[in-house]
Design brief:
alpha+beta, 36% helix
Length: 129
């Protein structure tokens, strides 16, 4: 079962809002620090997992429902400064800017061609079209 959830820091009331098709796997990723929001990961490491609680805002059973639209609506219901989220909309990068340090790190990593995610791969004819 999936839906839209919040992970709330009980010490400062900040929260991360996310959506998933599988609560169990997604929350497991957050807890283990894999495929998670960096701000949330750092907060959990600093405060300890015991200082966080999980809230389910919306249960998902219909695969036709666009969870990102519901997630965006829930994100907009809170002051953005009270969230660990990087983006104001679940479907875009509105409101997020990489730091100069992050941009420099990405550029230096990609100067070595073998580090590029597409190195050694080719697009299919369908993708190229």
């Amino acid at each position: 079962m999936g839906g839209v959830y919040g992970i709330i820091n009980t010490k400062n009331s900040k929260q991360y809002i996310g959506s998933t098709l599988n609560f169990y796997l997604r929350l497991k990723d957050h807890i283990n620090g894999r495929k998670t929001n960096l701000k949330l990961k750092r907060a959990i490491n600093k405060e300890g997992l015991k200082n966080f609680k999980i809230v389910i805002y919306y249960f998902h059973v219909d695969p036709a429902v666009l969870l990102t639209d519901i997630e965006t609506a829930i994100i907009s219901a809170f002051p953005f400064t009270s969230l660990y989220n990087f983006k104001k909309e679940a479907t875009s990068s509105i409101g997020y800017k990489h730091t100069k340090k992050a941009i420099a790190k990405m550029k230096s990593r990609l100067q070595i061609k073998t580090n590029h995610p597409m190195f050694g791969q080719t697009h299919t004819k369908e993708a190229l079209a």
